[in-house]
Amino acid sequence: MSDVSTMTEDEILEAIKSEVAANRVFLYMKGTPDAPACGFSMRVVQILELVGVEYGSRNILEDPRVRMVLSQWSDWPTIPQLFVDGKLVGGCDIVTELYQDGELQQMVPSS
Amino acid sequence: MADLDEIRTMIEQALPGSTVEVQDHGGGDHLSAVVVAPQFEGMSRIDQHKAVYAAVQARIDDGQIHALALKTRTPEAP
Predict the structure, then answer these.
(1) Does the predicted TM-score (pTM) go above 0.80?
(2) CB contact under 8 A, A93 and B69
């Protein structure tokens, strides 16, 4: 993923839009899939692993502006945020519920 | 400390015809709500949650609600 530390907020927004558009499944999280920094982010990572889908991710802790710009754009205050096909699906609670209902498995491409 | 009846009324007024249950999970500001509303038909889960949060935004802004966990569905769904 591109380095945001030298970007302006407008450039960060463009980077967010383009990575969400370029990846069918994209997760904004605290930490990384290998080292989640928050229990809610870890739960979504575990669910995506269980579903067996490929996904991109960005660690919002890399720069505080990422979370601010992301939440303004998505109109959703908390992290993690899972996007599928360019749309915000939800955070930990919604993703968990969709997984338990079997809906998430139908939304994402099977690999 | 949120007034659970007020929270329920705020959601019911924003979503006429809805059935709302609000519970306190300790401390009076960590709440959960089950909202069944006909308006949710055709809406994604995230938009359903946004609609409920918008109804109680004033109580989130003034700190009476710190967290509100939601379950949302339409009346038809099982």
Answers:
(1) yes
(2) yes
